[in-house]
Amino acid sequence: MILLDTDIIIALLKGESNAVLKIEKFSEDKIQLCTSSINAFEILSSIGHEKISEQVLSALKSLKILEFDFDCAQKTAEICAHLKTSNKSEIHRVMTASSAIVNGCTLVTRETRNYEGIPNLKIETW
Question: Is the pLDDT of residue 71 over 90?
């Protein structure tokens, strides 16, 4: 299963060709796509409630949304201890990484530097 990071979902919504091609390839290969509830929140909150379009809602609803559960919370705590961070500006990235690891997903992102040093995280760039 592929977990789409916020950056590729936003690029898809904007119609960026490299993001569209990447998703088309996953579809051809019949790979299930998902995102985390953390990423869904990040997208929805960045847009603002009044401006959330049907396109955005449709895009998010077309994906399996992985919930941030206790296992993810535990993995997040482990990663924060490993990275020696509790920086609130970085925690949503660690939570997304935890969702990918716990659910056996590969994280697809262009922002690989945001995930450096996280053990057992599989990343694919686009």
Answer: yes
DSSP for 86-117, written as a single string? --HHHHHHHHHHHHHHHTTPEEE-S-GGGGTT
Res 56: pLDDT:
87
* CATH code, domain carrying 9: 3.40.50.1010
CB burial readout 100-122, b (16+ within 10 A) else e: bbbbebebbbeeeebbeebeebe
Domain count, the chain: 1
Q: How far is CA 108 from CA 36, 52, 71, 78, 122, in A?
A: 12, 24, 21, 22, 9
Beta bridge partners of 6: none
Determine the structural domain holding residue 50 and report its residue range.
2-124
Written as six digits, the tokens of 48 are 């603002």
